Amino acid sequence: MKQALLDKIQRRQVRLAVVGLGYVGLPLAVEFAQAGLTVVGIDVDASKTAAIMRGESYIPDIASATVTALVRAGRLSATTEYAALRDCDAVSICVPTPLNKTRDPDMSYVISAATAVTAHAHTGLLIVLESTTYPGTTEEVLLPRLQAAGWRIGQDVFLAFSPERIDPGNQHYGVRNTPKVVGGATPDCAEVAQALYQVAVDVIVPVSSLRAAEMVKLLENTFRAVNIGLVNEMALMCAKLDVNVWEVIEAAGTKPYGYMKFTPGPGIGGHCIPIDPLYLSWKLKSLNYTARFIELADAINSRMPEHVVTLVADALNEAGRAINGSRLLVLGVAYKRDIDDVRESPGLDVLTELLARKASVSYHDPHVPRLTLNGQVYTSQPLTAEALAEADGVIIITDHSAFDWAWVRQHARLLVDTRNAVRGAAPRGGARVVRL
Ligand code: SAJ
User: Fold this and answer.
1) I need a labelling partner for 322 at 20 to 30 A (CA). Which of 33, 73, 279, 364 fits?
2) What is the mean pLDDT of the chain?
3) DSSP characters over 254-267
């Protein structure tokens, strides 16, 4: 069975299914199709599969022309039917792993995909989970379902984990040139999974087990969350010491070794950094271990929006104003620069709190034309000199490259800058600037 699959991979005749056609699954499907495989995307969202069949891409990093060419060449197709698995030799599962309301892992997407893949599994099928999740997921969620259906792992079917490393908007790193970690349930599982990914990825990084592969991704993103938490706490400490944290960070950044620059901000957003480490701490809790760095970083990072609101309140107070009744303009609501994604964005927390304190709040974000916040729809207001001058406070949450910060500083009266976007000397008559 293993040799038959390896031969198919060698001859580029292996047919691959990708379950979950989001910002991870679609680029993966496209890369394999461009490498010459026949790829079928499976997604529960018919609008996604229909768009792909029309040759349209809904992922900014993938051009529609690329999808059109691959669909026309018969290399790429998409369906909502898991039955397509019957004609596939391998399947990569790239479904979301969010948090639920109590900030615990929401495994429902992985479980429904595992159940559907098991229902359509056949002899010789290679199953790879790519979704970021806690160590133990592949052997606790996928493996038992396959075994209960009578499949012998490493003999009838093959099972592996390979963390996704897609960085949306990254112009330099894509699927092919980002090394891919792969761990298998058995040595034969690892061998076939590594052979498959070699088709689309230049560098494969074999690891010894499923858990090791799951843990690599969590280390990568916990590393970021903890270091961002550290630098956010540095910002709080520098404020107490009346030191400019941005100056300190710039100067520390001149150390040519043994240091990696992170910058404070209004909090952390996105679908990875605020969430992935909590999958790890949740799992460790079940093993009676407290992941203190993760919990502390989360405590600091998730309180940064509150700190920003305090900065706004103190700055207005200096001008004899309260937040209540003040006209406030927020610049940028996306979770990071130059993207349109607002998931877990700290900007939403800041907006919510300012509204709760009865400010009249508007926002401008060139990448986010409209926003639904607590059931209310807001639209991005035109950014004019008048709007800046009228605002009692302008709050910089996301430092998109599109902003002309000198112009903003010239027309605003009060600027609360959470990204050190506005640098350099104050122009005559420019805004009072309060920094994080
Ligand atoms: N942030 C800071 N200070 C920093 C860096 C980030 O406050 O020094 C904030 C950002 O504003 C954002 C959040 O943290 O709100 C997350 O930022 P991020 O730069 O980590 O970007 P993400 O969430 O898009 O993370 C992705 C991840 N990629 C994958 O999971 C495959 C992460 O592993 C990458 O390292 C990161 O992109 C990247 O380097 O761009």
Assistant:
1) 364
2) 97
3) T--SS-------S-
